[in-house]
Amino acid sequence: MEDHSQSLKLGLGSSYWTAPEVANPKRVGYGFPSDIWSLGCTVTEMSTRKHPQYINGENPLKLDRAIRSGKGPVVPDYLSDTLKNFINQCLQPDPNQPIF
Question: Signal peptide: which range, if any (predicted)?
């Protein structure tokens, strides 16, 4: 296996699944809460069959700004209440808050 510790510290990867604390260098960085955020984004993707959608997300600068400020992807209304609740709990913008 390769050593990926440096890429984890740098927060490399796609912005669509990046947690606010990883995207913003002034915050905590990579950790368990950022994995949970990415899980919420992945479940959103699996449920909608497309990458997580953000308001104004097609513009890379606006997408980056939204993520750094803690705005998660749009959770579609047509999903079940149970699934929406799960996704919203995963998309906790404050990594210091309890997740579940």
Answer: none
Domain map (residue ranges) of the chain: 18-90
pLDDT digits (tens, 9 = 90+) for 61-91: 888 888 888 888 999 999 999 999 999 999 9
Q: Measured in Å, how far apart are the chain's first and last C-alpha atoms?
A: 32
Instruction: Tell me if 66 sits within 8 A of 57, measured CB to CB.
Output: yes
Is 18-90 a domain of CATH 3.30.70.100? no
Q: Is 55 helix (H, G, I), strand (E, B) or coil?
A: coil
Q: What is the pLDDT of residues 14-26, one digit of tens each?
A: 778 888 888 887 7
Q: Is the Cα dihedral 23, 52, 44, 76 positive or negative?
A: positive
User: Which two tokens mark 77?
Assistant: 């209304």
